[in-house]
Amino acid sequence: MRICALGSGSAGNAFLVEAPRGWLLVDAGLPWREIRRRAARIGLHLNPPSTVVITHEHIDHVRGLSTLLRRGAKVWASPGTLRALGIPGHALTGEEEILGLFLRPFRVSHDAAQPLGFRFELDGAAFGLATDLGQVTPEVTSALSGCRFVVLEANHDLSLLLSGPYPWPLKMRILSPKGHLANDETGRVLARLSRDGLRAALLAHLSQENNTPQLALETVARALDGWDGRLYLAYPDRPSAVISL
Q: Mean pLDDT, the chain, as a whole number?
């Protein structure tokens, strides 16, 4: 498996995942032309992907989905997400085999219809993805346990958020159990996972107003003191590193 964040943040989210029978796209929050352009930057001349897996229906995760549907892509998502989007698709209600990967969906706490995170497995290696969640529940911890690689949001720094320009109701939404994870919580989660085989992590969905890449990395790295794995960043405007499992 190889994984790359083509973009992550409020401007749009899209992740490429290599499977034995082709590339699949997790979320389509960027226009198709931009997805293809960013894929080319990592050396991949991408045809419209045959399979798109959607975490939830917010626009920054589905902005380019209609174009991909017109080009014949099959969409997998929770029943609630499919209903919220008003589109046909394959309902994720349990573990599925998709393009040769085993995908296990798990529930996350976010203000959407029926949001999901995903655990992918191939030949004994697993990676997990949870990009929008306000709290890490036991179900999330269980789903990510044993993963070699994890994509997890590090959305905001608490001090920057509280002192920043957002209106108070929006700040409370972000801080709610159905909002987004702060850097320090992300660090605590990854520290727990580091004791169970985690070798690398990619910090995703960083707020451009309430966080900085350096602050996210420093905060999480402090929590992972002594860990010999690798930390990567996802960016809003360009692809991340390509991580191989």
A: 96
